[in-house]
Amino acid sequence: MKEAILAILKEISGAPAEFQILPEGRIDIEGEPPAYCDEAAAGNVIAAFKARGNDLVIDYEHQTLTDAQAPAAGWIKELVWKGKDGLWAVVEWTARAKTYLENREYRYFSPVMFLTAKDRMAHMLINIALTNIPKMNNLKPIVAKLQHHEITINNKEVIMIEKLKKLLGLAADAAEDKISEAVELTVNKLKTLESAAPVVACKEVLDALGAKAGAGKEELVRIVASLKAPGDVAVALSQEVATLKMKITAMEQTDLVTLALKDGKTSPEELDKWGRNLAAANPEQFKLIVLSRPAGSVIPVDGIVVLKDKTAGALNDTQQAVNRMMGVTDEMYKKYNK
């Protein structure tokens, strides 16, 4: 994965503004002994370049070193040592060279340089040429060639690694070894948590419930159930009291309505409009408004003849007809006319 990510990060489309001239360490050359480049050798190459004070030409196929016409492909403006990444050139390309590179008609280059006789260390850079047949082996091309699907896959890997850095709280420039260490540490922590005894409740909760330290789930459920029972009883009692209150209110309403009808202080129509609701919602106000009226002020009661038979509380047809007109049930009549 590391190599794929580095390939993406160093991928350069078209003509790059800089490219690697010499790798750090051993340089394999076709048909010759290897050459070498380290920080000291790169320092000598850079010093010689600066001493001349001229941009170094990049031509085509080393034509500058022959008698043939030698148009420039570009000019090296600066040499930079990048440690493990080797010696790099900052370049300014001509329009023609840019077209060649963008079309991938040229992909490689070939440096010409002086080496020290003793240890074949790079010492001075003479010329660089665009070529497709370089003598250096394992040379990184100026324009990297990656297939579309490889770029897509590697881009996804880069995005995933960036997200992983954020999740792990790592710096944006964290190396792969740091990511691996953080992932391993996180995995070990998770394994430790899985192997540890499950925590049912924190110490404060255990103290509040009067439970022992390390109490299990069953014990805590039992304690909570015992604390909850009185509350359930209270709720049941409260509901029962509310039901009784509703029944008493209904009885009071019936008594008040019956009494008002009996004395002729209201009518069934008035009761249907607002009387019964007032008697239920505010009995005292019903008494002040309705029961304080004179008897017979709404329905005269002088002409009502109550006929009783020999059976106490019994009703004849005439009385029942009158009661129906007044909205009085048989039960109400018997209750108040014994």
- List low-confidence stretches: 4-12, 145-153, 302-310
The rounded Rg comes to 52 Å
Side-by-side strand order of the widest sheet: 1-6-5-4-8-7
- Mean pLDDT, nearest integer? 78
N-to-C order of helices and strands: HEEEHEEEHEEHHHHHHHH
What structural class should be given to the helix and strand makeup? alpha+beta
* Percentage of β-strand residues: 15-25%
- State the oligomer: single chain
C-alpha geometry: rod-shaped
Q: What's the helix count? A: 11
Q: What does the largest sheet look like?
A: 6 strands, mixed
What distance lies between the first and last C-alpha atoms, to the nearest angstrom? 104 Å
Q: In percent, how helical is the residue content?
A: 40-55%
SS elements, strand count = 8
Structural overview:
This protein has 338 residues and is α+β, with helices and mostly antiparallel strands. The chain has a domain at 2-146. It has helices spanning 2-9, 39-52, 95-102, 148-168, 176-195, 203-209, 217-262, 268-281, 283-291, 317-326, 330-336, and strands at residues 18-22, 25-27, 35-37, 56-60, 72-81, 87-93, 108-115, 122-131. Strands 1-6-5-4-8-7 form a 6-stranded mixed sheet. Strands 2-3 form a two-stranded antiparallel ribbon. Helix 7 packs parallel to helix 9 and helix 8 runs antiparallel to helix 9. Mean pLDDT is 78; it is low at 4-12, 145-153 and 302-310.
